[in-house]
Design goal:
By secondary structure, this protein is mainly alpha-helical. The protein is built from two helices and no strands.
């Protein structure tokens, strides 16, 4: 993957993380999944989606 594609990939990662964080914050505190478990899930999803290419 060349450098411009890696930049797009990085922006996608950040967007996914921000969306998950905002969704999590909008949930009632008693309904929120564990933050550490959620972070691991998002990390796994992003790395699979990127194919760890950069």
């Amino acid at each position: 993957m060349d450098a411009p594609d890696c930049g797009v990939l990085a922006r996608c990662w950040v967007g996914a993380i921000l969306e998950v964080a905002m969704s999590w914050l909008r949930m009632a505190p008693g309904e929120r999944p564990d933050a550490a478990r959620l972070a691991k899930t998002v990390r796994s999803f992003n790395l699979r989606g990127a194919g760890m290419s950069c």
